[in-house]
Write a structure and sequence with these properties.
Membrane topology: Multi-pass membrane protein
Number of helices: 9
Shape: globular
InterPro entries: UPF0750_membrane (IPR051461), YitT (IPR003740)
Mean pLDDT: 85
Number of domains: 1
Distance between the termini: 29 Å
Subcellular location: Cell membrane
Order of helices and strands: HHHHHHHHH
Keywords: Cell membrane, Membrane, Transmembrane, Transmembrane helix
Largest sheet: none
Organism: Paragemmobacter straminiformis
Strand content: under 5%
Helix content: over 70%
Length: 200
């Protein structure tokens, strides 16, 4: 009988490709609306807005320092899969705005759609033993070293991120962004099996 907790190389490749593609689609929705999100992706979005650089480049560079924490906390396989997933997302998010466009996208619906799409993307990435977020990896590492709960680290990071965004983005934009981030977290909270898959 096949162990439901393990995946073949082809299954991992398909799952990571699906997750990275869906995540890139989510980022395309997010940046089209000028919204932000939480965690490492949110940091990269804010930096891309501030510097004018593409999200893909910023996201790829921002994640580099976190691979060491991933290796120490979750091992080589996790770190390699994560690096590949981040690279795929970075490349796809650079090209995808040229492949699809929106004549009209309601901000409220767009925020919810981003949340659903990104939640599905992260579930796929987690299920196949990887991650897209350096902050989550760092939070787990700090939890091991200091005992400070990973969830609190992530919450504090997101609170700081949204507070910074609120200083230069319209309050409506921050509000819709918060809705999108809440939907992502809700999708993960309801559907993610922490006893089976890697959680970050």
């Amino acid at each position: 009988m096949t162990d439901p907790k393990t995946h073949s190389l082809i299954e991992d490749a398909q799952g990571l490709a699906f997750g990275a593609t869906m995540a890139a689609f989510g980022i395309t929705i997010l940046t089209h609306l000028g919204l932000i999100t939480g965690q490492t992706a949110g940091l990269a979005v804010l930096l891309s807005y501030a510097t004018g650089q593409s999200f893909g480049l910023v996201f790829f560079l921002v994640n580099i320092p976190f691979y060491w924490f991933g290796y120490r906390r979750l091992g080589l396989a996790f770190t390699v899969k994560t690096a590949l997933s981040v690279a795929m997302l970075s490349v796809l998010s650079h090209f995808m705005p040229g492949w699809i466009g929106f004549d009209h996208l309601n901000p409220a619906f767009g925020a919810v759609l981003f949340g659903f799409v990104s939640g599905a993307a992260l579930l796929a990435i987690f299920r196949h033993g990887a991650s897209l977020g350096g902050i989550g990896i760092l939070a787990l590492y700090l939890q091991d070293r200091t005992g400070f709960r990973a969830g609190k680290t992530q919450l504090l990071f997101d609170a700081a991120l949204f507070a910074i965004a609120a200083t230069f983005l319209p309050w409506q934009t921050v509000g819709w962004s918060f809705l999108g981030a809440a939907v992502v977290n809700l999708v993960i909270a309801i559907n993610h099996r922490r006893d089976r898959y890697v959680a970050t």
